Amino acid sequence: MNFQETLDYMFSRLPMFQRIGSAAYKANLDNTIALCKLLDNPEKEFKSIHIAGTNGKGSTSHFLASILQSAGYKVGLYTSPHLTDFRERIKINGNKIPEQFVVNFVEQYIIPETETKLELSFFEMTVGLAFKYFATENVDIAVIEVGLGGRLDSTNVITPELSIITNISFDHKSLLGDTLELIATEKAGIVKQGVPVIIGEQQEKSKTVFIKKAAEQNTPIVFADGIYTAQNVQHKNNDKLFLSMDIVRRGNVVYNNIESELLGFYQQKNIPTVLCVIDELKKKNYFITDANIRTGIKKVVATTGLLGRWQILNNQPLTIADTGHNEAGISEVVSQLNSTPHKQLHFVLGVVNDKDISTILDLLPKEAIYYFCKANIPRALNADELAAQARKHKLNGKVYSSVKEALKAAKQNAEMDDLIFIGGSTFTVAEVIKN
Length: 435
Fold this sequence. Notes:
Layout lengths: L2 H11 L3 H4 L9 H9 L8 E6 L4 H14 L4 E4 L11 E3 L2 E2 L2 H18 L5 H15 L4 E5 L16 E4 L7 H4 L3 H8 L9 E3 L4 H13 L4 E3 L4 E10 L3 E9 L2 E9 L6 H17 L6 H9 L1 H5 L6 E5 L2 E4 L5 H12 L6 E5 L8 H6 L5 E4 L10 H10 L4 E3 L3 H11 L5 E5 L2 H9 L1
């Protein structure tokens, strides 16, 4: 098979949560364990950092990979979902996995096993592929992002150097639970015996869950926002636009004017988490300088290729895309939209069909003009249904046949001092970036 034929096989033959939702979710690790055994347990051949959380785990993963690369390490990075290219999920030092490695892996391991006994999901297969690639290429360390939850996620077969949980919010309630305590319990499932755990945010509903889990596993726990905080958070235009902040530890500024290519103000929560992780890595004799930290944070997009985080697509009119898609993520997005100067907001909105979106719709600005659309995946909510639900929340606009048509209409209607925003789901943003 060539690469495109391999992708077609993967997408058509293997259940994929990204496309079909909960039907692809499996409530055990049996398949992943069996696949890793078939692959000679590559997950044991490299060191790793494991990252879970409702929001921020993608940005945090990329920040860490970028800093470690800046420090001279050979760094694997596994994230999901991808936006424009399947190979975004698996990278070493910012370079995507080669097409031929994917083809060879599927032909050698996946097709024979899928046709006989292992009914692999798309995600299980992708995790095995990433682990095999990182082991084959002998990475110094791999940053592994959890796909969904933690306890039952396919990535949860590794024993990492550190475990990280960025934060807890409502998402995938049908699979992870309908209370923050239940969701926290699922996320805490990545905590391993004796492996230090860093929690990004101290939250009343989840803090006790994490402390109890750490005690059960006899491992130290650190709450990052109790160590580092950000202040003077603002955008600065030097050679290009950056997010700038000072980082404070115990009342003292320890990083003055630290800059990031990621422009979302919500990064002020992720960067303190990253700094705590670096502190823990230094205890494990990783050599990382302050210059490595500054460079890694500042050049994270250039170094890792991260897309879709408060990404500016155009300046006249200002056009921004962001993948925030749950209650906490949308809340951050709306806060930043409100602080971004504009005359009229044009909001291209598409969501998935397996979530209760009423709380999200409640958060969205009533004065915006909406362009309701459906991303080209089975999980996407029909645009007419989205518009009907939105009208109940006093959100008004028109329905469009595709994301592309919705954005085209927004561009035609917007004046130069207006703001166009594209969001609601990762897949809506993906189609905009592709085009």
